[in-house]
Write a structure and sequence with these properties.
With 289 residues, the chain is mainly beta. It is built from 4 helices and 18 strands. The protein binds zinc ion.
């Protein structure tokens, strides 16, 4: 998209004031997944790690002979009000294979679904509200992670073993805000060796973000879709973009053309969608698992 047009759209977006709404995870009469525990963390401000810790982690494609397919940057993007999302057919191929369709059961008895993505052999990022019931603020009790999902009988890999998670405390006072809406999950198996993982670029600056051509992807009702475009920094914790997303995409990756995640898709409103930046705090929590 041409720069002037981006600027015009950005200004238009600024003029529209509407409150953010969390993606209500799609409800599902869930199966019994692997059990685990979510620990809700009480960060109050970004904790900056030494620069040494900020080296990007490289992506891994378990099928290096298959060339990953992503669309080229188009000359122009059409209006945002249209649904530009593309349905992924080859969900089992990298980089899509590294994105999980999560079927979750909460301690409260609710069931919901969300998305997540591998960023290492045994670690996955998602939204905190994919790990905590948005109605009752109760944590997830069991999760099944499907990779390369087509349907319950057709997928590349299914993990329903043990897991442990950290979630930012997004439900302080039992009221959702986008603050701290990220989750880090450790799987007790090297699932990434089978499905791959995205690289992770930690602490990207505002100007670096604005110069990236990006993709956002996630599952909704078991269907994986993506869109592409540009993003801007919104705060030290958030980015915003006009790439199309949908409820259930929560927890999906915002990533670059060379498969480095820079954000986690978390919320939407009428004028833009919001992602959680891969901040040094998120990295510290991921490393601490
Ligand atoms: Zn609940």
């Amino acid at each position: 998209m041409k720069r002037w047009k981006r600027t015009a759209i950005f200004l238009a977006a600024l003029m529209i004031l509407s409150s953010l709404t969390v993606y209500a995870p799609a409800e599902l009469a869930g199966e019994e997944g692997g059990e685990g525990e979510v620990l809700v963390l009480e960060h109050t401000e970004e904790e900056i790690l030494p620069a040494l810790e900020l080296k990007p982690a490289e992506p891994f494609n378990p099928d290096p002979e298959t060339e990953p397919e992503l669309p080229e940057e188009p000359e122009e993007r059409t209006v945002f009000d249209m649904d530009n999302r593309v349905t992924v057919k080859n969900t089992g191929e990298y980089p899509y294979s590294a994105i999980a369709y999560m079927v979750v059961k909460g301690k409260c008895g609710c069931g919901w679904t969300g998305s997540g993505f591998m960023v290492d052999r045994n670690k996955l990022l998602t939204a905190a509200h994919c790990l905590v019931c948005s109605k009752h603020s109760e944590c997830a009790k069991s999760i099944t992670f499907y990779f390369g999902f087509r349907n319950k009988n057709s997928y590349r890999y299914k993990y329903n073993g043990k897991w442990t998670a950290y979630a930012g405390n997004l439900f302080r006072d039992r009221k959702y805000t986008v603050d701290w809406d990220y989750g880090c999950v450790k799987l007790y198996k090297n699932v990434g060796d089978k499905v791959g993982w995205l690289g992770s670029y930690w602490g990207m600056s505002d100007s670096q973000i604005a110069n990236q051509f990006l993709y956002v992807a996630g599952y909704r009702d078991g269907v994986l879709k993506y869109d592409y475009g540009f993003a801007d920094a919104k705060s030290s914790q958030h980015i915003k973009y006009r790439m199309d997303t949908q409820p259930g995409n929560s927890g999906g990756p915002v990533f670059t053309r060379d498969y480095y995640a820079i954000g986690i898709n978390i919320a939407e409103n009428d004028s833009y969608n919001t992602g959680y930046r891969l901040t040094t705090t998120v990295k510290g929590d991921l490393d601490g698992l």
